[in-house]
Sequence to fold (813 residues):
Amino acid sequence: MAFLTAVTALTSALLLVQSPRASEYQVKAVFLFNFAQFVDWRPMAAQDPRAPLLIGILGDDPFGAILDETVRGERLGERPFEIRRFRQLRDIEGCNILFIGRSENDRVEQILTALAKRPILTVSDGDDFAERGGMIQFVNDKNRIRLRINLEAAQAANVIISSKLLRVAEIVSTPKR
Amino acid sequence: MTLTRTLFLITVSTVVWALPARAQQRDSVEALKRLSLDQLMNVEVMSVALRPQRLFETPSAIQVITQDDIRQSGATSLPEALRLASNLQVAQVDARQWAISARGFNSTTANKLLVLIDGRTVYTPLFSGVFWDVQDVLLSDVDRIEVISGPGATLWGANAVNGVINVITKDAKETGGLLVTGGGGSELRGSGSARYGGEVGAHGNYRIYGKAFSRDPTLLPNGQAAPDGWHMGQGGFRLDWDTPDSNRLSLHGDWYDGRIAQASPGHIAVSGGNVMAKWAHPFSAKSDLTVQAYYERTHRDIPGTFGEDLDIYDIDVQQRAAVHARHNVVWGVGYRLINDRVVNDTTLAFLPPHVARQWFTAFAQDEIALASDRLHVTLGTKIEHNDYTGFEIQPSGRVNWTISPSRMLWAAVSRAVRTPSRIDRELYAPGQPPYVLAGGPGFRSEKELAYELGYRHQQGALVLAFASFYSRYHGLRSLQQVNPPNPTPIVIANGQDGESYGGEATASYRITDDWQVRAGYTELRVHIWPNPGSTDMSRGATESRTPNRQLSLRSSLRLGAQWILDGGFRYLGAIANQQLPAYTELDARVGWQPVAALELSLAGRNLLHQHHAEFGTPTARRGIERGVYGMAQWHF
Fold:
């Protein structure tokens, strides 16, 4: 007699054998941390090689302490990681990666326009973020995190994304008007 | 003895355990940081409200074969893919027959394993085993194959005595576009398939597929080709709807038709089909209801032996519900009706030739979270009623203890039964009286009591799993002399008892993002003896034909963006009661993906020897030959 429990109890637990479960923002925090290794900010070459690599959060912060926990003690080359929360758009300074919280969903275009051409990797899990001109969008698909990358947006800002990252992502472009 | 040890270990572990939650979170972040991008994308995430922190929690010996594993291994059939699970004993018998089992008791009519394809039970009520030649799927549509060794009877049902194989195909949403595959070579003479998927309305997706293959014969002991070459065609469809209010509806079906050569008198003809509907309805984030119903028809005509037409009707209902914060309850009921018509021939007979039988089942299980979600106790039982033995009860108790996010210990005690099938009660030989074998009018269920203990550990890119078991069997199938010492007639009875024990270990290590190696090792002993008064002195030679140990090593290496190189080595110990020597073999595959839409591959199977045997007594065994084939796959 076939019973469907595969669908619930077993299946849910079974996948853990291969891939542990984790909270959504734990995984997204690790992605943000990993992005630093797969992204090259061209104009940054001139910067101090020991200046902190700055991950900013704009709007409501969904990570809590998780993101700080994730980058604590980590370095990219000689650069330590630093997390900074920004209340307002004009506060953003010296940021390498900017995570835009869902609270900013309505004004994403406005934010991106203001940031245009600055070498900042923009990341969000807001709706249609990549189509709207953001660089990397997190998408939840069947309880897994997928990446959508707007390559044109990154190139326009001189942010070079490694092919290793592109390989696992879905490439989208801003619809022409 | 094993139970005492298990309880002791649990007690000790419970006393010792104490870790602050903060350290736990830190541990899991560290583990996530060591994952590659690909692995990170495979981590299942959950919103905290749904089911808090369920890391590494499966309290059973499970291995999962993924779509990538299947594709990269170059497997061309379901049994070949099942070789990737080292907790299974897989032996190719001839061109079409396979003996597949878990924890021993292997044979071509192995009867202690439950096999499901998308929730459909594929073992035949004729002998409680699987006709592997007609269990096919489009391998590129398989999402994963879950292989559980050990009893799964409480949740799964009466045949899950020593294991469950659960083949799960992808949602139609994930198989859009046109996929065309074609190729051939030696052994796999030719194979081709096409699948097309698209959308139906705003919330639905569909796919249709067709496939066909032709396989070469194996070798007779004298070195000549055996008359067992065969060819087969199969087609099917799947529809999936996700309604806006989160109901899920699936409808799928398959049809197949094949011809298999045999020595005489004429070809074996197989054909059949199935259609299934499944509906899942969520009440809340913590509670849902699933209903599935299917119909399956199979036809098999083996001229000179028997012919069979079988209809199966099956319906299952299951509900999952979180009761309070600590209890996760799953319960369900099921009904199954078979209508089996056998056409008897000269060599054997099923009497009566035509039977209709039904099964009623009910099960309930409660998973209880203890010690702030670090310890889970799962208690459950299945109650089943069948037309042969009436009510059967199959309870189990399982404990899993999350020592840390990267370490998990589990233990289980289960009772399972293998209920009679037609072959146990109704098989007569020869086809007409006087019978040498006169059925098994008194055959009852075979009973098992199993103790298991397992441990899993993840250390960065290294994942280790270990499971050990001890099982005791009562009333295993035997052949009894009716009037000893006269050798005939004989009847089928429950005249043997037995035990099995052993361990299954797996290790997987990701050396770099592009290179992964895996190893699997299984050590297994099966002892069977006649119980008091029994005249069966075979010591289980007809019930279990299994090597004492097996080892598999696999490597998967990606070279740049275009090339992928895979190798799989296996060692299988001797099968003592068949005088079958141990053997080693190697499979290899190189895949080249010049553009995203096209993959070309060259695969070799059983490369180490011109031919080798995996199963059978010296006069009956077949030589499995080395095979090399090329394959091309386009995805538009």
